[in-house]
Structures are given as structure tokens and as C-alpha cells.
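Complex record, two chains
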Amino acid sequence: MEYADPGLARERTELAWTRTAVSFAALGAAILKYRPLIGLPVLVLSAVVWRLGRLPVPARAGRTRDRRPLLITMTTVGVSLVALALSFLGPGIAPLR
Amino acid sequence: MDKKISTMPGRGIRRAGMRQPGGERVTDHPGGDDSPVTSESGDGTEPDARYTFANERTFLAWSRTSLALVVGGLAIAQLLPPFPGIPWGRHLIGTPLILLGCAVSVISYLEWKASQRALRHGQPLPRSRLPQILAIAIAVIGLIAAALALLSAVGVP
């Protein structure tokens, strides 16, 4: 239930989701350069994030119970651990390419 | 429709009909007095959608910050030419950046949750600790980078 027309607030939030998706894409592209096999899934992930931002959340269930922020956080932590591993493995290991 | 901008409790007009079954307190959420009160025991009431949206945007902005830190850390570790004489120097900058990104992501989620809870209960929003954490961490990493640059210029024995 929304009490007032959130109007531009909704739009601003959708744009924020889009920017976040672009950030994921940037990370994916940065990994893609040396490890396409890992970079590609991250790029796909950015499309998923973009879609999440446009998801109509069942309003009555309450945005407070929104699971998307937790999802974003877990994804970011996972991706950053992958980035950490990659930063130590270096760009040249064939099996992971 | 008359909108109150305050998130502080106790500012609005209390009406008998607003009392929740089983709950003692009446939350004057910013959505106005004629908005329905969803009765979710012990979990407050659904706040004005605009505040929820704003909270979500703040969380997303911090998420982007953390992603940028991770990208930066990875780029430094992989793309930067090694410091002469200090081959592990890149990791000394890159690894803290990636870990900082990880921490910012987790903390921003916890703060989003705390803010959402405060909004539901009409309490003042908790102060964010992230700006302080980020500023201190970036300052420390900057000092490390400066020290590495100096050391490699001078030449490590």
C-alpha cells in the first residue's frame, strides 16, 4: 500500500538500480579482459540486477521485507572474493581463462 | 492531501481508530493520518513509500561505491606495472581496497535494515558510520600507496 503517489521517487530509485547494474557491468568488463569465463557471468549478473530494479514488489507485503538488498550484498561479497582471488592469481593462468 | 515531512514520533494527531490490536504505541508515520495502519505485530507500520525509496537509493549508492572499490583494487593488482624493487607492492594497495569494498557492502546492508526498522517505528534514523569508515580507510590506503611510491623511487636495499 502506497499512501502517496511516490511519483519521481520511484523513477529515481529505478535509475539508481540502473546505475548499480552499470557498476556490475563495469566490474564484469574489467574481469572479462583477462578471464572471459569469469567476466561473462558477472556481465550476465548486471542484467539480472537491472531486472531486479524493475521488479514490481508486492506492495502490501512490505518493502521492508524486501530481499533484494540482501541479494545485492551477497552478490557483491561473492564477486569481491572472486576479484580478490583473481588479483593474486594474476592474469595468465590458462585453466581459468 | 496534507503531508507531514517529520519522521519523529508523537507529532501527529492521535486517533482512537489508529490503535493497533495488541500494540501499545501508536505510530505517527509520515504518510498522513488517513492512511491505513497495517497491523504487523511488533514490526511497526509500513512507512511512506518515498522514505522507503530514499533508503533503498542510499543503499544502492553505497553498493556502487563498494563495487567501484573492488574494481579499483582489482585493476591495481592486475594492470599496474609492479613497483621496482617491491613486487608485492600492488597487492598491498589492491587487497585492502577489495576488502574495503566487501566491508562497505555488508555495512551498508546492515544500515539499510536499521534505517528501515527506524522508519517503521517512527524513530529518528540512526547515524551512518560509513562515511567515517570510508574516509579513514581510504586515507590509510593512500598513505600506503604514497609510502610504496617513495620507497620504490628511492630504491629498496
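Note: Chain A has a mean pLDDT of 82.
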